[in-house]
DNA sequence: ACGCTTGTCTACTAAACAGGTAGAGTTAAA
DNA sequence: TTTAACTCTACCTGTTTAGTAGACAAGCGT
């Protein structure tokens, strides 16, 4: 799962992307529009500023704006930034590789093999999408529970 | 990230799959071969027994074995079982859907749209692979850091 | 029936992390 | 020089993770 903080981060960035080239957006505006606790959002945005993804303007009429055009901010980058890695296990990360604790030698670990493949598929998709993409949300739910019935129930 | 427990679970099941139809495998054998703390493994295996994925045999010459052929145990099922869902956000789960806290209405949430698509890609891959598949681990690392250079560095 | 080996179950705990909050300080436009 | 912003360090509280302890139950072989 993505942490709540990562989700807030993504939604905040989406909001800034929506207001690209419209001048700084105030923190409260983001907090209200995106339903993010105000105080927590200060922490999140400050980090994004430190990381260079967002620019802040202090003083009156200040606020935040993206540091680069939405089309240049890929979702993969955002998740790498906030989570450290796209991978589902430390040893399957391509940019922040770490040995897993209590594991087999990496060359023998099938879980690692699987997770490397999975990571690459996820990366391919997340690096294709940027903050500039309009994402259409699918219609309701219901008829989508199919395909889940399996040997296990 | 998958929790350590989920990783242990998968490796334990792989071990049982490797010894399919060779009689019960003792807990200690699994613990040693897979480098899993013995006491913790009892918890993990007991849960798998309760969930019907593994059968246990008590008494002398007892141990554990898979309840069904390895080819019928998909990785997707294992992760659904231990994590509850494949999705990266609660609202993007197909079999354990939940509203996210402090979010937008689901129909408007672009993060949800993105995560639904991602979930489906992950599911497609994880439901294609089973415990019967030999997974080849890729060669070393090194030349694989390419493709990471981006607007962000 | 006995004893050994092996799994089962409930409870507990230490440490880390998640998700926030408080509040004093700094900037810059009007 | 006021005031509406952002910034920074510190703190807090609840939950989850990763285990451990220890008494108990069940088969197998003799």
TrEMBL record, chains A, B:
| UniProt keywords, alphabetically | DNA-binding
Q: Which GO terms describe its cellular component?
A: cytosol
UniProt-listed PANTHER family:
HTH-TYPE TRANSCRIPTIONAL REGULATOR ISCR, WINGED HELIX-TURN-HELIX TRANSCRIPTIONAL REGULATOR, RRF2 FAMILY
Query: Which NCBIfam families does this entry report, sorted A to Z?
Result: rrf2_super
UniProt-recorded Gene Ontology molecular function terms: DNA binding; DNA-binding transcription factor activity
Q: Which PROSITE patterns match?
A: HTH_RRF2_1, HTH_RRF2_2
UniProt organism field = Novosphingobium piscinae
User: What is this protein's name?
Assistant: Rrf2 family transcriptional regulator
Pfam families in the record: Rrf2
Q: Which InterPro entries match?
A: TR_Rrf2-type_CS (IPR030489), Tscrpt_reg_Rrf2 (IPR000944), WH-like_DNA-bd_sf (IPR036388), WH_DNA-bd_sf (IPR036390)
């Amino acid at each position: 799962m993505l942490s709540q903080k990562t989700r807030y981060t993504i939604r905040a960035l989406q909001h800034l992307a929506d207001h690209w080239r419209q001048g700084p957006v105030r923190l409260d505006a983001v907090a209200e529009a995106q339903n993010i606790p105000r105080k927590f959002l200060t922490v999140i945005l400050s980090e994004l500023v430190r990381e260079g993804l967002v620019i802040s303007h202090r003083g009156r009429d200040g606020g935040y704006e993206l540091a680069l055009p939405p089309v240049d901010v890929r979702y993969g980058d955002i998740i790498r930034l906030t989570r450290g890695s796209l991978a589902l296990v430390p040893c399957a990360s391509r940019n922040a590789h770490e040995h897993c604790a209590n594991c087999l030698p990496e060359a023998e670990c099938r879980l690692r093999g699987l997770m490397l493949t999975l990571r690459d598929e996820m990366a391919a998709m997340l690096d294709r999408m940027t903050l500039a993409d309009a994402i259409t949300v699918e219609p309701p739910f219901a008829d989508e529970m199919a395909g889940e019935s399996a040997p296990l129930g």
